[in-house]
Amino acid sequence: MLRTKLKTIALLLTPMLLLVAFAFAPASANSHPNRAGWSSHDRDCTPVGGTIITNFGALGQDAPNTTLGPVTGDLAGAVAGSLIGQPVISGNIATFTVQHHWVVNSGDNIYFDQAQAKTAVLSQTRFAIIDYPVHIKGGTGKFAGAVGDLNAVGEVDLIAGTAFRYFGKVCFADQN
Q1: Strand, coil or helix: 157
Q2: How far is Cα 26 from Cα 168, in angstroms, rounded to an integer?
């Protein structure tokens, strides 16, 4: 009985502990200095962070595996994330492939490589994000020629939606 209660408490606290641990991680902790442009003198690099909350099915019945919602913080605007294929399951770890579509408040687009969201399975519909590296590969306006790396922690609920904290670094191309 006590063991069951302890397991339940541990399961409920795991996402919160992950959020707290990553909330205090420096933005550069997950950056990739070997990416093209990171150490170049013609780039203006800046740490970024904020939150994302999205809902599955927000685009209607034609896109049930796509989330859509607001972004706050340094890259404020809106984001959609489309699940590509089925997750890869290994034990209690599920890895989702995601394609992001991001528009900041100024109307500029940010382009991304497909990302791999590594999660801990909490139930059939809930997952705690363990590692979610996302690579920026350009965009429009201010993000034309930009590169960068973000990571995120949070929770995915296939019924209720998602909640993330993102952090990382963006290096903008020299606009001269």
Answers
A1: strand
A2: 8
Block residue for tokens 């408490």:
9
What's the whole-model pTM score? 0.76
CA 71/CA 105 separation, integer angstroms: 9
134 in Cβ contact with 147 (< 8 Å): no
For the chain, helix (H) and strand (E) counts, in that order, are 1, 10
Domain ranges of the chain: 2-173
* 104, 76 contact by CB (below 8 A): yes
- Per residue in 68-95, pLDDT (tens digit) is 999 999 999 999 999 999 999 999 999 9
pLDDT digits 0-9 by tens, 104-157: 999 999 999 999 999 999 999 999 999 999 999 999 999 999 999 999 999 999
User: Would you call 87 helix, strand, or coil by DSSP?
Assistant: strand
* Topology classification of domain 2-173: Porin (2.40.160)
143: left (phi over 0), alpha (psi -120 to 50) or beta: alpha
> How far is it, in rounded angstroms, from Cα 148 to Cα 163?
21
- Read off the tokens for 114: 């497909």
**C-alpha–C-alpha distance, residues 96 and 15, integer Å:** 17
